[in-house]
Structure formats: structure tokens, C-alpha cells
Amino acid sequence: MVDLNFFEKVDSALGEEANRKDGILCLVREYERTSRNITAILNRVHSAQTEEVIVQAAIEKFEEVKQHLSNLAQVVPYQKFYRYNELWTRTVQTSIFHASFVVYLTSERLITPDEIEPMFGVRVNLKNDLQDFHISLDEFLHGYTMLTSELVSELLSLLAINSVTLGNYDRPLRISRFVKELFMGFQLLNLKNDALRKKFDGIKYDIKKIEEVVYDISLRKLSRNSNSEDAGVRSE
């Protein structure tokens, strides 16, 4: 004899799971829309607008990011964070990048976890020991690599080139130093052969792209601050 009540309970549980996932996906799509808007704002760094205006516009949008993450935290059950995390993790990584780029444009330094938490309204879990809603260490590091792998090739390198066309020949040298220092930081980590490792390996190619600009500046002697460390030799 088969107890059909068991299957009815299973069907009910599956229905609840599907509804929860659909609700989460709806919230993630709203979050992704805000993320695309921030990307569009930061792309204006290559326009005639001042960076201060662009940065302020991006910072204001982070209030929406905070709200999106708060909404997700309310629907994700306790101790089931990693069951659903893959639905929004790429968007969080992009947001980490956005925040990193904003801080770079403001002060030319790397953002810290202590700065991320108030901007996102979510704890950064550096020890990977939390069960409630958080930003994982993996997401945080992926955001760092995106600052170089995606935006060195697409934004930061363009920023360097555009700076040159505007006569700001020192900025590409500062960008080069910043990316090299970030690369050195990642070298201290014992990364496994996974997606994060592949992104880290890609940073060396991003460095070469910037060095093409820096090397040309050095040859033309356009910057008073160029030296052998920053621009004398291109990477092989």
C-alpha cells in the first residue's frame, strides 16, 4: 500500500520551493536593472562630464542596491543562503566592482570590506562562516578582479587612453601602479584552479594592455613621473 499523503506533502513542498525561487528571481531582475544603470553611469567617465558628478550619481544609486539586497535577505530562509546564492552572486560581484571603481575614481585606492558593508547594508563574510544573508569572500574577490579584468580592458584602459588625449599623462602611470599592486596582493593568495584563479591569471594580460599606453608615454617623454619601474620595460 502506498501512502498518497506523502506525495501530496512533497508536491506542496515543491510548490513552495518553486514559488520562493520565482520570488527571488523577480527581485534579482530588479537588482540587475539597477546594476545596469550604475554601469551606464560609470561609463560616462569617458565623456565631458566631471568625475565628481559621475561618482555622486553612482553613489546615490547604491541606496537602491542596499534596498535590493535587503529585499533578498527577507525572502531567503536562514541557513539556506548557499542554496539560492547562485541566483544573485554575479550581480553582487558586479556591484562590488562598481563600488571599487567609485572608490578608485575618488581616491585611487582599493575599497575595503569595512566600506562595502555600509554601502550594501550587508555583512562581508571574510571567514565564510555565516549562515544568514551576506557577501561571501568569493564574491568580494571576484569584484576585485573585475576592476582589472573587465574594466582595465574596457574602462580603465580607456580611461588611461582618454587621459592621454586630454593631456593627463601621469594618470596612466598611476593606473599601472595600482593594478600591479593589486596583482601582487592576489599573488599572496593560495588560489585553487577555479573561476577566481582564471580571473586572477587574466590580470597579467590587463597589465600588458595598460603598459602599452605607459610605454608609449615613456618613449615620448610626455610625463615627468615616468620611470623604469612604471614604464621602462613592457611585460613579455
If you had to describe this structure to a student in words, what would you say it looks like?
This is 3693_t:CDS:1. By secondary structure, the chain is mainly alpha-helical. It has 2 domains: 1-143, Translin, domain 1 (Methane Monooxygenase Hydroxylase, Chain G, domain 1); 150-236, Up-down Bundle (Methane Monooxygenase Hydroxylase, Chain G, domain 1), CATH 1.20.58. Helices cover 73% and strands 2% of the residues. It contains 10 helices and 2 strands; from the N terminus they run αααααββααααα. The protein has helices at residues 4-43, 51-75, 81-84, 89-107, 113-120, 137-149, 151-165, 171-187, 195-220, 228-232, and strands spanning 124-125, 135-136. A two-stranded parallel sheet has the order 1-2. Helix 2 packs antiparallel against helix 4 (89-107), helix 6 packs parallel to helix 9 (195-220) and helix 7 (151-165) packs parallel to helix 9 (195-220). The longest helix is centred in the first third of the chain and has 40 residues, at 4-43.
Q: Top keywords for this entry?
A:
236 residues, mainly alpha, Methane Monooxygenase Hydroxylase, Chain G, domain 1, 2 domains, two-stranded parallel ribbon, 10 helices, elongated, disordered C terminus, 3693_t:CDS:1
Would you spell out the secondary-structure blueprint of this structure?
Layout: H1 4-43, H2 51-75, H3 81-84, H4 89-107, H5 113-120, E1 124-125, E2 135-136, H6 137-149, H7 151-165, H8 171-187, H9 195-220, H10 228-232
Parallel strand pairs: 1-2
Helix pairs in contact: 1-2, 1-4, 2-4, 4-6, 6-7, 6-9, 7-8, 7-9, 8-9
